[in-house]
Structures are given as structure tokens and as C-alpha cells.
Amino acid sequence: MIRRTIPEWLFWLLAIGGIIALLVSYEMVSLAQTRTNELQTTIPSFGKLFEGLKQIFRAQGLPENPKPAMFWVDIRATMWRLGLGMTIGVFFSVLVGVLMGAYRWIEAPLGPVVMFLSKVPPTAMMPIYFALAGTDQSMFASMVALGIFFSMTQSIYQAVCQDVTDEAINKAYTLGASEFEIIYEVIWKQILPKIIDNIRLQIGPAMVFLLAAEMVVGGAGLGYQIRMQSRVLNMSVVYVYLAILALIGLAAEWGLATLRRKLCPWYVD
Amino acid sequence: MSQYALEVKSLSHSFGNYRVLDNIQLQVYPGQIVAVVGPSGCGKSTLLKAILGTNPPTSGEILTDGIPVRSPNRNVGIVYQNYSLYDFLNAEQNVSFGLKLDETSFLMRLFAIRKYLSLRKSHLSKSRDFLKQVGLESACGKYPHEMSGGMKQRVAVAQAFIMRPKIVLLDEPFGALDEAMREDLQLMLLRFYQENLLAKQEGRRPEYTILMVTHELNEAIYVADRVIGLSRFHTQGDQGAAIVYDKPCPIFSPEDPRDFSKFSEQRDELRKAVFDEEYIKDRNKYVTFWSELSELANRVAEPR
Ligand SMILES: Nc1ncnc2c1ncn2[C@@H]1O[C@H](COP(=O)(O)OP(=O)(O)O)[C@@H](O)[C@H]1O
Ligand SMILES: [Mg+2]
Questions:
Q1: Residues of chain B contacting residue A172, judged by C-beta atoms under 8 Å apart
Q2: Does A162 touch chain B (CB under 8 A)?
Q3: What is the average pLDDT across B29-43?
Q4: Regarding the domain delimited by B31-57+67-75+167-304, which CATH topology (the fold level of the hierarchy) does it fall under?
Q5: Fold classification of A65-263 (topology level)
Q6: What is the ipTM of this complex?
Q7: pLDDT (tens digit, 9 = 90+) per residue, A208-219?
């Protein structure tokens, strides 16, 4: 029967079973591959993966002149680009989206433009960013910012239109609100949970543009390293990087969900 | 200070070529609870929106306490049927929201935190007092999604009245509520009216002035002290709806039994004058000229 409930313990047993099955079958495929080719690195065993993990955290450079481990260099570069780009992108899309929802004379000229540009796949725009912004750090950040800007502006604008009713605004006027207070005390407060949700939803796409760009250009970063290592079939490092990316995604998801619960206890979805 | 809480002068309203309201004249004294009834689509909400200032009338003038209404402002309060409260504020914050907006500013909240916090404290305590008065002291911390429809409407009424506006507009405020909650809310309005009477006896200006749209004739006569009927069924009806009924009605105190048979005669008259499509009459047939009867409008208590 569809959606029939199963006991809680059985659910968890199956969930853990699924993960174990994945790990065991991976190891078996890896062993089979090693049997045909002693030196294979495409499907490294867990032992090799652990080697990879140690390798990425090993300090580089000479003992008398140590350099940070590969992983720290890459994660710093990527997170910095992602953080800066997201901050700029979120700031401007909230600003523009809210103003579009608040003023018809801003909505009219920007609405169709934003709607149109939000439909262009940002990865397809990458060559334009390379041409316009060069290939330095600021290119990555502005690419992330612009990559999320149009679709996020569109979502924020729609959230204002749907969640903030005319009644809410008119009532605020009857309670003595100024225009600025309506924007800050009514519109902003009402859509804050939607903003947080949208940030959560945009992290995925932002990572896609950023890693894709890092694979094409750049001398550091998770995307750059994944490409360099997979070129020499050093998959033990590549898989560890992928696992770390998944963990970052989970952590961001969890963090933003918690933030939303804390800041907007009133919100029920 | 004007003798009228609300004055509507020769108000007409058209949507395109369709004339909805024709030459509405209305004066409401401070402390009156005026019920507006009429067939659906006759323009009741249009009239309220004009008074609120969101949809200015095609012609005519509206004054609250002698001041012309140009846009929604703190002189006119509103309670909607479907949209009652701000989701992101709990009950006491919702009620004190107007005090916050009115008495503090964004800059003050940033740069004069001490002053703001002490004001905030007094706002919240005022708000709790008001909630207590409408029987909701246990719900102060509840968010709208945790409250029933009746509780939300009570909070919304408190939210409007705490601002001491010249008049509060209620557009079918209890329409979505079940019978028991409706009765509770009607009693709440009757208690407000008792305070108005007390204020008049003590020579103060009454605080609760209400213009309330309802489709329940019993509710109109039971709660209000004056009923207005809006309708197109009059001799110039093709020009738009007009006030075809305007009379005082019996006053109930919250302790009185809810005996609607007392006013069955007036109810039948009201139904005929406002809702009967066949009965086309002069628009002034059932209208009391209040300006000549101001002593009636300022009545302290009705002999039963
Ligand atoms: N924005 C509008 N544009 C055109 N016609 C409208 C608009 N709002 C209301 N009307 C028309 O005006 C009439 C009165 O509407 P309304 O005031 O909402 O009636 P009610 O008495 O039921 O509250 C109705 O016939 C309605 O169709
Ligand atoms: Mg209506």
C-alpha cells in the first residue's frame, strides 16, 4: 500500500543498511578492479582513500619553509569566493526584489528584464564573465553574485507580492507607519524566512558556477584541484574532495534551517 | 475638534462607467456604533475603502474629526475579515505594533536604545492590559498561526483601538467565525459601547467609534446603536447605491439576554427597505436626519 507507515526501527535499519551496502559494494568493485590492474587509481580502496585524506592535509613546502596543506589552500580560496559572491548577490537581490515588490515604478522597468535574465543558465554566461571581469579573484565573486542575482531577485520579488498583502500594508499605514517602516517592519520581517530559504536554495547553483569556473581557470580552489587531480587519475584525492563538498552542503543546509527556526519562530511551511 | 468623528459629504464612486455609490451623506458622532447592511455587491466595501483612504472616491469629501482623508493614516483604524494580524508578531507585539510605529522611529531604535527599550516596555504593558480587557491575557505570547479565528479577530480589534483612532472600520469582521465566537465578539463590542456611555456621563469624549459592515441583520441591530442600509433599490437606483435606511436601534448591554424578538419589527422594516428588489421607494423614506436630531445621536441610554 502506498505510504503505509513502517516501524521506526525498521526505517533506521534500512537507512543504515543502504549506506553500508553502498560502502561494501564500492570496496568490492575496487578490489575487483585492483585484481585486473595492480596499479589502478580510478576506484581506490578505502585504504587508498585514507591515504588521499592524509595527503590533502599534509603540509606542503620544505620543512624549513612550510606551506599550508593543499586542502586549506583550496578551501580558503573557494569559500572566500563563494562567501563574497553570495553576500553581494544576496544583498542586491533582496534590495532590488523588495523595492520591485514595493514600488510600481521600479517593478515596471525591472520586472521583464529580471524575468528574462533569470532564465539564462548562468554557466552559459561564464565566457562573458571571463571576458568582462578577467580571471582574477573578483571575477569569481562577481560571477557567483551575478549568477544568483537574477533568479534570487525574481524569487524575492514574488515572495513580496504573494506574502505581503495590500491589507497588511494599508493596515500598517493606519497604525502610523512611514514608507520606510513598511519596508523594514512589514515587508522585510514578513519575507525573512523566504530570504533564508532562498539563500539555502542558491548555494547549490552558486557552487555549480564557482566549481565550473575554477575548473576552467584559476590556480587554487576545490574545482581547480578536482580537475588537476583527476587529470593524473589521482582519484583518492578527488573522491575525498567530493565527500567534503557534500559535507559542506549538508552543513550549510542545516545551518540555514536552524537560523530560520531561530529568527522566525512564527514561520510554518 | 469636530463634533463628528466621521463626516462623508456627497460621496460618489464609479468603476469605469459603472456607478457604484451615489451621493452618500453620512455623519457619525463620537461613541456611535454604526452598522452598515446591504445586498452583496452594493458597495459597502467600496465605501469603507474610501473612508480608509486607499481608494479615494470619484467625487465628494471625507473628514475624520474635521480633517480630510487623503490616504490611509492613523485617524482611521481597520479590521479586515480575512487578513487580521501580522504573522511574524505574537499577540502582544501585534497589539503594540501601532504604538511602536507611531511613537518610535527606526533611527531611535538604533541610536537611542535605552529610550526605545523603556518605551517598548510601556507599550507592551499597555498591550497586555488591552488584551486582558478583551479576555485574552493567556494568549499574549501566541503567534497568529497558534490562535483561533475568534482570538485573532479580538487581537485585531485591540490592535486597531489601542491607537485611539477617530473611527474604526470593521468589514464583515466576524463573517468567518462560528456562532459561539461571533457572540463573544459581539459582547466585546457591547462592552466598548458601555464604556462610551460611561464616558458621556462623565463628560469625556467616548473612545470607541465604530462603522461596521455586516450581512447579519440581527447582529447589526443587536450590536449597533444605529443602522444604515445601502442599496440600489430606490427610485434613482440606476445611478448607484445610496443610503436608503438610517435609523437608531435599541441598545443592549452585555448582561441583557440576547432576545432578538424585541426588534423583529425593525428587522422586517430594514429587510424590506434595503433588500427587497420589488420595493422601489424614495431614498429618504427611512432616513433619520441626524443633524436635526443630534440629541438622539448623543443619547446616554435608551429607555427600554
Ligand atoms: N476594483 C474594482 N474594479 C471594478 N469594479 C469593482 C471593483 N471593486 C468593486 N467593484 C464592483 O463594485 C461593486 C461593489 O463592490 P463592493 O464594495 O465590494 O461590494 P460589497 O457591498 O459586497 O462589499 C461590485 O459590483 C463590484 O463588482
Ligand atoms: Mg464587501
A1: 101
A2: no
A3: 93
A4: Rossmann fold (3.40.50)
A5: MetI-like fold (1.10.3720)
A6: 0.92
A7: 888 988 888 878
